[in-house]
Amino acid sequence: MRTLLILIGLYQGANGLFMLAAPALWYVTIPGVTATGPANPHFIRDIGLAFIAAAAGLIIGALKRDRWMLIVASIFLGGHALLHLAEMQHGTTFADALRDIALIVLPGLLPLAAIPAFDPQKRTA
Where in the sequence is the domain holding 102, given as residue range(s)? Predict the structure, then answer.
């Protein structure tokens, strides 16, 4: 489980770094983003920072077996995943739904499954 959390953290962190470093390129590269409205580089960078913070929380939480770090990271990632699920209810193509489930929903909600396994009594320094 720790390895999976670290991999999800690296995935989310890479996305955040991409958003921060090249918001215009991120906007045109990520499927479905251009359909959400015009690009706003400042806003894309702001969200990139949220992805980086959540990624740090996942990685630190996994390495230190700290459930509170996982909970905090999951506030953004899980909320983002649930937002995408809710928006799917208002009409989306099957292909877009599969893409969002694979790339946003699963990586956003999987860390929640790890929280109960991280017993605070077994925390490592």
Answer: 2-122
Residues 42-61 pLDDT 10s: 999 999 999 999 999 999 99
C-alpha distance from residue 121 to each of 57, 68, 113, 125 (Å): 19, 13, 18, 12
Query: For residues 37 and 15, what is the distance between their CA atoms, to the nearest angstrom?
Result: 19
Q: Is 36 exposed, middle or buried (0-12, 13-18, 19+ CB in 10 A)?
A: exposed
The total of structural domains in the chain comes to 1
Q: Which pTM value belongs to this model?
A: 0.89
Burial 97-111 (b: 16+ CB within 10 A, else e): eebbbebbbebbbbb
Residue 30 in tokens: 């990520």
